[in-house]
Amino acid sequence: MSNPKRSKIIAGNWKMHKNRGEAKALAEAIAKGVKGEKDLPIVVLFPPFTAVSTVGDVVKDTSVNLGAQNMDHHDSGAFTGEVSPPMLLDVGVEYVLIGHSERRQFFGETNASVNLKLKAALKHGLKPVVCVGESLDERENNLTDAVVRRQVGAALADLEVTDLKTLVVAYEPVWAIGTGKTCEATEANRVCALIRATINDVFRSEESAPVGDSIPILYGGSVKPSTIDEQLEQSDLDGALVGGASLTADEFLPLIKSAQKRIQALVKV
Ligand code: PEP
User: Fold this and answer.
1) What is the pLDDT of residues 29-55, one digit of tens each?
2) What atom in ligand 1 is closest to the CA of residue 100?
């Protein structure tokens, strides 16, 4: 039974898909689909940079939130091709993905750069969604736990407990992203619990409640309407970061509805 006190989140990572017209239409369909609904999860859309403003205009004054897929950690400067935290804030962005596996795999993102970006996001009041997860090779060599612990520990280096109020972590096994192969729900839950325990180890304090217990941890990796219910039933899994199935309202809205049902069930307990 997932802790009802933790926020439930359904987030859509549109990756390098959707021109402005397509992004506008999809954001409108999602905003319309959740309009007037109660007990919603936090819904966040991560469009490509070229459509962030467009989607921001659509979701302003709705229950849908705006995110960006990446950022640089500097405030400004000679960093061609990069976008800074103040620039994201300027166009109304609230959430930012940090360390998505595609950034790690193809664009040289490292645990050290994830840490710099996380610190910059928090400094500027952006809500970070830090992505961690093992590759297929690492899983096959029984390195999942070590890799995930290392990624989480490195991301959180030099932070204080008080910095973590808006932190969200996404467990995204690389082998499950965009492959149609979903990590079994109970195994995803086990790794989410490990992430929570790792956060608690990093910030162990006798005075305060374990901070990891209040941090939402999402699962990502080929989440679909047919997989979400079992995933949301897990005790340490507080939502989903969704790629492919976030690209149409027909697939994304049912994920939001499933989370809404889950929230309603948790309230009744
Ligand atoms: C992602 O992009 O973070 C993701 C999990 O993609 P998909 O749902 O397509 O596997």
Assistant:
1) 999 999 999 999 999 999 999 999 999
2) 3
CB-CB contact of 19 with 48 (8 Å)? no
Paired residues of 127 in beta bridges: 95
Statement: residue 208 has pLDDT above 90: no
Within 13 Å, how many C-alpha atoms sit on residue 178's CB side? 9
Separation between Cα atoms, residue 134 and residue 229, nearest integer Å: 24
CB 155, CB 132: distance < 8 Å: yes
Q: What is the whole-number distance in angstroms between the Cα of residue 10 and the centre of ligand 1?
A: 12
Do 86 and 124 form a contact (C-beta atoms < 8 A)?
yes
> Which pTM was predicted?
0.96
The gap between the terminal CA atoms of the chain, to the nearest Å, is 10
Domain boundaries, the chain: 9-268
Query: Is 138 in the active site?
Result: no
Question: Average of pLDDT values for 108-112?
Answer: 98
Helix, strand, coil percentages in the chain from 3-state DSSP, rounded to 5: 50, 15, 40
Instruction: Select from 59, 73, 159, 79 the least CA-distant residue to 116.
Output: 73
Q: Whose CA is nearest to atom 1 of ligand 1?
A: 243
Catalytic residue at 17? no
CATH of domain 9-268: 3.20.20.70
The alpha carbon of 245 is separated from its chain's Cα centroid by a whole number of angstroms, namely: 15
Is 250 a residue whose pLDDT tops 80? Answer: yes
